[in-house]
Design brief:
Radius of gyration: 29 Å
Strand order of the largest sheet: 5-4-1-2-3-7-6
Largest sheet: 7 strands, antiparallel
CATH topology of the largest domain: Thrombin, subunit H
Number of domains: 4
Helix content: 10-25%
CATH class of the largest domain: Mainly Beta
Number of strands: 28
CATH superfamily of the largest domain: Trypsin-like serine proteases
Length: about 475
């Protein structure tokens, strides 16, 4: 056998020895050809202002006022001219939801737009009406005057598995109908600025202009709407996020029927249950959502929720971590009687709560606690902290009965637990802290439970800290 023939035999043997998954890479060609016609390019125009070329910064009332008037403005500030108005254009993506011209896109693509123009794949161009927008889910619904349009089929993200191939079609940097592919890298991601969206995380290349475009599975079904990227440069870095299609469908339905979106509201401030906190609450493992505060006049308060409760399930749906709870509650219809499983004081309870509508100004519902000044009492050092009592007016600002202000963190265990100067301690091991003497007594009564949950107010928000009390 000739050398070339031996090489071909060896190569064939190598290919056949590869795993099936390596020999059967997905073919994206049919998906791109079949579904690209239903993806649109969206161009928007926004009115904005920019300083006139001769316009100077406003230094009126500062020591620099005379200087800039002398060299640039002239008498009476002649150099200061009104800002010029100009139009700023931007591009995004979307996809046709129904044959009669409804189009789904991202809210931030059309936010503040004075004009929205939709470009179809066959070069037709339409002015679009914004039917409705939902900033919290970053979903918007448009309508164009057209019929018999190609559409995309909506699928399910619930059946999506990590590692599964997915495809995106959009207009990155204005290059319309660009196709990129990758895999699902995580599900149920909660981003710092988005509490109500359990994002699908992928490594599909998403760049400016892809927003609002579809994320497809290998059956050609839309399983998400591309919304965000994680980037330190403004370009793709391997982390992309899409809104799950189930949430998109619910938002679109409400926008078409009511012109707005309503969400369920429980009325608790929550945080993650860490391994240390789980140990302090006597739990086998960290799970659930820890209630750091029950908001006043909220459904949770009416149902008897308490600070320190750990929410384990909501209406039969397991709550594996704190980020899972807001989307579950948000999808619950207003007026629903929900059963919530909580852990409290080592026991499991079932609380029944009637879900209300999420207030428009959620931050206002938090009570807005503000830091206050403690009484000028003699400070005392406990557990590596220098503590002083909280005065009455400061306690009212925080909407608490009493507490201790951490003036300085000098040693462990406070330092190891992450206690900070300025923290206000209001609970120790579930008991209210109304004085230095009370805290000293609670420390002496810890017994065998060496890790204790401590509720503090930090920067106006309540949070739990697991503090390990040293043995005598």
């Amino acid at each position: 056998m000739k050398p070339m023939q031996w090489a071909l035999v060896a190569l064939t043997f190598l290919v056949l020895s590869l795993p099936a998954s390596a020999r059967m890479l997905p073919d994206f060609v049919p998906l791109a050809e079949q579904h690209s016609p239903a993806v649109v390019n969206i161009a928007t125009t926004r009115e904005s202002e920019r300083p006139h070329r001769g316009q100077m910064p406003d230094f009126e009332g500062t020591p620099f006022e005379d200087l800039f008037e002398r060299f640039f403005g002239g008498p009476g500030g002649e150099g200061r001219q009104a800002p010029e108005s100009f139009q700023r254009n931007s591009l995004g993506s979307g996809f046709i939801y129904s044959e009669d011209g409804y189009i789904i896109t991202a809210n931030h693509v059309v936010e503040g737009a004075s004009e929205v123009v939709v470009h179809l794949s066959d070069r037709r161009v339409y002015d679009a009406e914004i039917v409705g927008k939902d900033p919290q889910s970053d979903v918007a619904l448009l309508k164009i005057d057209a019929d018999n349009l190609p559409t995309l089929k909506l699928g399910s993200s619930a059946d999506l598995r990590v590692g599964e191939w997915v495809l995106a079609i959009g207009s990155p940097f204005g290059f319309d109908h660009s196709v990129t592919a990758g895999i699902v890298s995580a599900k149920g991601r909660n981003l710092p600025t988005e509490n109500y969206v359990p994002f699908i995380q992928t490594d599909v290349a998403i760049n400016p202009g892809n927003s609002g475009g579809p994320l497809l599975n290998m059956d050609g079904e839309v399983i998400g709407v591309n919304a965000q990227i994680y980037s330190r440069t403004g370009g793709f870095m391997g982390l992309s996020f899409a809104v799950p299609i189930e949430m998109v469908e619910d938002v679109v339905r409400q926008l078409r029927e009511h012109g707005e979106v309503t969400r369920g509201w429980l009325g608790v401030l929550i945080q993650e249950v860490t391994r240390e906190l789980a140990d302090s609450f006597g739990m086998d493992k960290p799970t659930g959502a820890l209630v750091a505060r029950v908001q006043s006049d909220s459904p949770a308060q009416k149902a008897g929720f308490e600070t320190g409760d750990v929410i384990l399930s909501f209406n039969g749906i397991e709550v594996p971590n704190s980020s899972a709870l807001p989307p579950i509650v948000g999808r619950t219809p207003v007026g629903t009687e929900a059963e919530v499983e909580v852990r409290r004081g080592g026991e499991t309870l079932i609380l029944e709560v009637e879900i209300e509508r999420l207030p428009e100004d959620v931050s206002a519902q938090r009570g807005g606690p503000r830091p206050g000044q403690p009484d000028p009492a003699q400070p005392q050092s406990l557990l590596g902290m220098v503590l002083e009592p909280l005065d009455r007016s400061a306690a009212e600002d925080l909407d608490v009965d009493s507490g201790l202000v951490v003036r300085e963190v000098v040693d462990n265990p406070a330092r190891a637990a992450g206690v900070r100067s300025g923290d206000v301690i209001v609970q120790f091991g579930g008991a209210a802290v109304d004085s230095l003497e009370t805290l000293d007594r609670l420390i002496s009564e810890v017994g065998d439970r060496r890790t204790v949950p401590v509720l503090v107010y930090r920067g106006g928000n309540p949070t739990y800290i697991a503090l390990r009390v040293p043995q005598d």
